[in-house]
Amino acid sequence: MGKIRLYVPQKLRVGQTVVLETAQSHYLFNVMKLKIGDKISCFDNQSGEYDCEISEINKKTTLLQITNCTQKFEASPDVWLLFAPVKKDNTDFIIQKATELGVRKIVPVMTRYTTAERIKKERFEAQAIEAAEQCRRTDIPEIANSLKFEELLAHWDKKRVLYFMDETLNGRPVKEVFSTGSIPCAILVGPEGGFSVTELEQLRALPFAKGVSLGRRILRAETAVAAALSCWQALSGDWQ
What we know:
The protein is of the alpha/beta class and 240 residues long.
């Protein structure tokens, strides 16, 4: 098993003593069975990742001594994921995979055919933190408040390219669009029922929006997210 890695919501520095919150202390003490002298890694979403040694541990309080910096902070590429929330477990999958695939911001978008009505931002944030801890990124994607589709387009920064997944096959192939990809950008994936005719017409009329086809097979929403982000990272992102 690799070294345990935790997000700590405060700026860290070498020589600092860190007091972990109760939930993290419970995890280290009761779940992972760590003891004084054991080492873990911590990152703070602003300065980097650090080696830490446990100096005190019990059910409610754990003290860490930061010994050295192992990785400087690195922001993920400036690509956003805009997605229509689906069923709870599938939305969890989307948050986790988007984090692993390196998006900088995640925005839930309420479209015409979006079925999920309740958006639990705190749950999304917890999912993103856990995924960031596991995939070793030093930043955590921002989880935005949900927006209605029309509101999203009305306030869009036209300098940010908007790629939308077009399952009608009217979009261009990913290798043609993403290989000439721009940063900053965003990838918009619709709900299980797809975009409505009106929504597609609105998107196609926008000069900053580009339709993208993911092929002839109809993908589930969570599959489309993973596929689109993987293609973008391979062709235009930091996988090159």
